[in-house]
Amino acid sequence: MTASYTRKPSTAQEKQLLAQSDQHLACGIRSASINPEYSMVIAGGRGSRVWDVSGNHYIDYLLGSGPMFLGHSHPAMVEAVQSRLAAGNSFLLTNDAAIELAALIAEVVPCAEKVSFHNSGSEATLYALRLARAYRGRDKLLKFEGAYHGMHDHALMSAQWTTKVADFPQAVSNSSGITANTAEDVLIAPFNDLQTTEEIIRRHADELGCVMVEPLCRTFVPAPGFLEGLRELTHELDIPLVFDEVVTGFRLALGGAQEYYGVVPDLCAGAKAISGGLPFGFVGGREDIMALAGRAGVESGRHVRLTGTYSGNVMSCAVASALIGELRQPGVYEAVNAKGERLRKALQELLLAADIPARVLGEATAFQPWFIDQDVIDHRSSLGYDWKRQFKLQDLLLDRGILKGQEKFFVSTAHSDEDIDTTIAALADLMPELKAG
Ligand SMILES: Cc1ncc(COP(=O)(O)O)c(C=O)c1O
After folding, report:
1. What's the chain's average pLDDT?
2. How many CB atoms lie within 10 A of CB 374?
3. How far is the CA of 160 from the centre of ligand 1 (A)?
4. For the domain with range 12-60+333-436, which CATH number is right: 3.40.1010.20, 3.90.180.10, 3.90.1150.10, 2.102.10.10?
5. 84, 156, 167, 169: least CB-packed within 10 angstroms?
């Protein structure tokens, strides 16, 4: 894949599959672009590459929206699945793969004295919220404007799609079908504004079940002292602080954002980076809060229900343990961060040289160009960004054999130095067209 890459048009087979998709799928699977010209049916992936049904190969920075942190079809994942599958997967019963993984997570994730297993990031944040509410005996959730915590009703409040902003702490629903009462149980605060957040938390302390935060809020990096201030305040008021580590967990560091930023929450919700794309999520946290999900919860009359049919299934757990084993090898994070940082820096420099107003925000393996001519620190300051240019970048990259999501570039351990070089060359090549709009 080079700047001279030529994307093949959809074959008859791909066109037919796309027509069937329109006919039968309501939604739930994404397109690679909002532009129908770029519709594709994905056929496979290995390492840093994916390919479509028409035979186009792409360097993949979408990575399934983050979970393929070690690349597609990692050999350790394939081996874990193959060696366990013949002996069954789903039993609803305690199994050795789940026990091994719980012990590993407790060892590497700072807040995780105990762990529970689920099937997605949305489930993990939902159950972390429920546990925190039960612990505190209060109903309300404080979350940050623009933060995304998944698809459950309380999470879909003033999330990343919010364009009509309300006065803090009023929540704005992001979906029809959610009851009006739900919004009353959610308070919204501005990320990176500790003073306003503290005022809201102190005013509503008696109603709050927890404060939930994406420590890297989408790609808004926490200002120095922001997470530390939240920690101090919630500790003082005994309000559980929940980190949504669905993106940052095992990605920013083995111990996630809590290790990377050095702030340890009471609970965390994790998912993507270690399951090789198999459905997976977990809640980890303080023993006394997590205990409400077990016998102690039953005995105290405050039992929290959190398990489901597939919780702790063998495949997801065996793969996650195997991939944590890979991530623990010396030098893994140094290498992936160096590659990500090189790409991120090159993108910022190329945008600057092309005189395209933009800020590239995030961390080395999860970053995003915001096309805007002012500093962005939170959702509200990002609102004037040029979303058309964002989508245009996606299409110009596809033309050059590079796949990226609508928001972030995700970098994996499978990306080679050559992939990064190729991507930088493609970015340099597309800048004049991106500038032209
Ligand atoms: C920070 C964050 N929390 C929660 C979720 C929801 O995870 P899932 O899609 O696995 O339900 C996502 C998904 O992108 C996320 O980015």
Report:
1. 96
2. 12
3. 12
4. 3.90.1150.10
5. 167
Give per-residue pLDDT as tens, 88-103.
999 999 999 999 999 9
Residues whose beta carbon lies within 6 Å of some atom of ligand 1: 65, 120-122, 125, 148-151, 214, 244, 246-247, 271
User: Domain map of the chain by residue range?
Assistant: 12-60+333-436, 75-327
> Which of 172, 152, 265 has the alpha carbon at shortest distance from 211?
265
Q: How many A from CA of 71 to the centre of ligand 1?
A: 19
Which residues are 300's β-sheet partners? none
Ligand 1 pocket: which of 122, 219, 363, 408 to mutate (most atoms within 8 A of CB) = 122
Q: Is 114 among the catalytic positions? A: no
Can you tell me which atom of ligand 1 is nearest the CA of 272?
Answer: 10
For the cut 90, the answer to whether the pLDDT of residue 4 exceeds it is: no
Burial pattern 199-223, b for ≥16 Cβ within 10 A else e, equals ebbeeebeebbbbbbbbbbbbbbbe
Helix, strand, or coil (residue 115) = strand
Which strands make up the sheet holding 241-245, listed edge to edge? 114-118, 281-285, 267-270, 241-245, 208-213, 140-144, 186-189
- Strand ranges of the sheet holding 402-403, from the earlier edge strand across to the other edge: 42-46, 49-52, 57-60, 402-403
| Residue 308 predicted with pLDDT over 90 | yes
Digit-coded pLDDT (tens) for 383-416: 999 999 999 999 999 999 999 999 999 999 999 9
Query: What dotted CATH number matches 75-327?
Result: 3.40.640.10
User: How many angstroms does the Cα of residue 55 sit away from the middle of ligand 1?
Assistant: 30
58, 148, 261, 385: the active-site residue: 148
**What are the b/e assignments for 401-433, b being 16+ CB within 10 Å?**
bbbbbbbbbbbbbbbeeebbebbbebbebbbee
Question: What digits encode the pLDDT tens for the residues 99-158?
Answer: 999 999 999 999 999 999 999 999 999 999 999 999 999 999 999 999 999 999 999 999
Convert 86-107 to b/e letters by CB count within 10 Å (16 or more is b). eeebeeeeebebbeebbebbee
The tokens of 408 are what?
A: 């972030």
Whether 244 sits among the annotated catalytic residues: the reply is yes
- Which of 246, 251, 282 to mutate for ligand 1's pocket (most ligand atoms within 8 Å of CB)? 246
